[in-house]
Amino acid sequence: MPLRILFAGSPAAAVPSLRALATGPHEVVAVVTREDSPQGRKRVITPTPVAEAAVELGLPVLKANRIGPLEDEIAALAPDLGVVVAYGGLIREPILSAPRLGWINLHFSLLPRWRGAAPVQRAIMAGDEVTGAAVFQLVPELDAGPVFGWIEEPIGRHQTSGHLLGVLADKGADLLARVVDDLGAGTATPVEQEGEVTLAPKLGLEDGRLDWARSAEELDARIRGTTPEPGAFAELDEARLKVLDAVIAHDDAPLSPGEFDLRGGRLLVGTATRPLHLVTVHPAGKRAMPAADWWRGRGR
User: Which domains does the chain show, CATH number per domain?
Assistant: First the structure.
């Protein structure tokens, strides 16, 4: 049976799910997304990627940084099901119970591992080899509801959180659409979450700080996990150096932690174990550039 769906989401990672639902057999009655905000270096007021996609799809859009004040508008829509994908705000009662079937959430981890706002980033930073996506019933407790379905996805050795999130967003959209179809047919069967609960709080700027006294493996995971946001960085001569791309130099002789060396056109930096090959960096006040060019330009 076709369902009347209220969709809530904001970033680009939610767009594949919105498109999958909008082009399926169900009716998306409205889209809730966060308000327009300043973006880019020029701080241009810009709608969210979900808002832009909703307009393109001809769907009504409700913009709010908190969904609570939309109680009357949502009640008037009489949705059968609420679907949330990275909206960026909590959904509490009475809105949580407003749809006939409640709300489901597409979350980018294998729950109960990495409950919270940054599951993809935390999985990479922790050195996980596998992650995934899960669709679960939204409950008052954070990411704790029973799961309707999940997929697994290996984490590549060189994958950044931005790339992995893109993969999960696409594959998760297909999973979400299947779960919604099952809910419409009355065949969806959720199962309670099992296993150790780990938390994935939102990343802050300091999560990207690189400590060369740590192992190359830890530093590599931190760089990939914080790329593109909030970004990995180190401080050199009291200036911040963003590290955009780096790989572990498995076959090179060790360097002392924090020691830089230009070898064969490659810039290496020492860690507690193997050196890291810095590929691309973004020095303060300059453009992004090959790390070796930046080092040569420092007059070293």
Answer: 4-185 (3.40.50.170), 205-297 (3.10.25.10)
